[in-house]
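Because showing beats explaining, we let one protein speak, sequence and backbone structure tokens together, and leave readers to judge.
___
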Amino acid sequence: MLFLLVFGFAATSAFAQVAKYGKVNEAELKMTRFAQDTSAEAIVLSDYGYTRFSFNHEVQVITERHIRIKILKKSGYDWATIDVPFYVKGGDRERVSSIKGVTYNLENGQVQKSKLESGAVFEEQHSENWFSKKFTMPNVKEGSVIDVAYTITSDFVYNLREWEFQTTIPTLWSEYHAEIPSYYDYKFLMQGYHPLYSNDKNIAASAKPELVNNAYVWIMKDVPALKEEKYITTIKDYQSRIEFELQQIVYPGQAARQMSGNWDDVTSDLMMSERFGAQLNRSGFFKSEVAYTMNQHKTPLQLAQALYDQVKSRMNWNGKYTYLATTTTRKAYETRTGNVADINLLLTAMLQEAGLEASPVLVSTRENGRPPKQSPLVNKFNYVVCHVEIDGVSYLLDATEPLMPFGMLPVRALNGEGYLIKKKEHRWVALKPVVYSKFITTDLALKANGDMDGQATESAGGYYAFSVRKSLSDNGEEKFSESLKRGANYKVGKPMIENKDKLTEALKIKYSISASGNGQDNHIIYLSPLVGHAKTDNPFKVSERVYPVDFGTPVDETIITNYTIPTGYVIDEAPKNVTVSLPNNGGKFTYLVQQEGNTLQVLSRININKPVFYAQEYAYLKEFYNQIIAKHAEQIVLKKGTAN
């Protein structure tokens, strides 16, 4: 065991370099665990990429890649299945060629090689434009080292592939070279938290005398695994990688050709697009419906709410994300179905027809990644919502969710800021969430034998109300009733639900609750005061965190339990009242226990006032939850007779 630990710590220095294809060393084969991360199921020993431009018959981009992976556990066998995506559009395509691979195993002190057969490589189609070459390396075992190399030749000379330095397993060495002709001016977009080990630029030789090649090298070493954590958007937001944006092309003797454009160009192009701006101008087919609705409502806000409800009730979302319509607003209206753009561009057009100041807002969803504020890259968006301003107040609307109240966006769309587009204006707008609000009051009569019975009332607002209504709609009241159970000790009656269809009002849930005691009078009664609502698990377990914590929404959760205690019983022990606050008004926890006569009240209130906490605030947030859990675990002790 000692040998393995020493060997593991030596791994970085032994392997931290570009591997040569077909040349494995004994240390790589003998390695059985990775000491820096013993949970690692596999590690990338070396990942090397080299991109160059070819001017033979036509301009092409050629990328060669060689990756070496060590398999440490059976759970890491999936890393022996390689999937190389490639893109095809019209007459242009990417071609994957020169695929080769070898699996190395150490058996009885001898290195055994198992080569990838050409017949083991097959092609899959994932969408209209995306395909992949896929293969699984042969004879993979715990301890195997796999070598894989391939070449991608691309006709898309204006789009360099990104290079990922970081994956979900540790990477000892990742090195990427790019020789870019001086004709092409690229902007390099670095992302992630791991620093570059090396970043060099030189002048490289060129086959064309008039052409200068700029040779770039980026290297990272000892890159930790990219691990999912609770409360993040998408893990790709935090991945260490480099992307390339073509700014301009300058051919000899020609004027510079701008490629990246700016936000003015993006706005103009979108407003002229048949699949975006043109959809807002096709209003003839719903004029009479909008006119009728206008006559029924006196105020602009009431009118907007009515049109929003009409679109929600009429349209059925097909679940597809995009900011571009796939059909005309008329056809979407007639078929009553469409993607998010079909539906929300229709909503925007109807609000505009009603004389309201409505505009589309481009969004990158939480799972898609951060919006591209630093560069005008419209393809980084994958969603669109509607913005309407009424009497100086802004509202954001998404008509894809029938149960979503006016002025609320689905959590999937809450990703910082969105890009608002008008004919002659564009700006970023905050995608502000409403509060996740839960207020639970439980009134219980306690008997000397420990029996309890009473009533509970839950008031749900904001995103909590939406989640409850969605559960009721998807699963029915019977299954929802099961979710109200507070553990094996409590029985819950059939709930009575109020305001289920009144989306702008708080949802009320009332039900009976009871628990059985031990059947005999007790001198001492122990109470878990929050009746099944105590928090018992801290979602923040690691000592340090690199990524921000993103709850998505603010939180306001209040739990009040009122006990009527038996005559002759008094509090012997009780949790002390406490207030815990996060810095910069980030949040607050209040816990109160108070008695008046034979009534005992316990109050717990948790406020999270902002949805995002940065890494430097993590320690405070973790301790905040530690104190909540500790306080919620404390019991109340009732004693018959006089208190101590």
Notes: The chain is about 15% helix and 40% strand. Residues 436-640 form a domain with the Jelly Rolls fold (CATH 2.60.120.1130). Residues 1-14 have pLDDT under 50 and may be disordered. Residues 462-483 form the longest helix (22 residues).
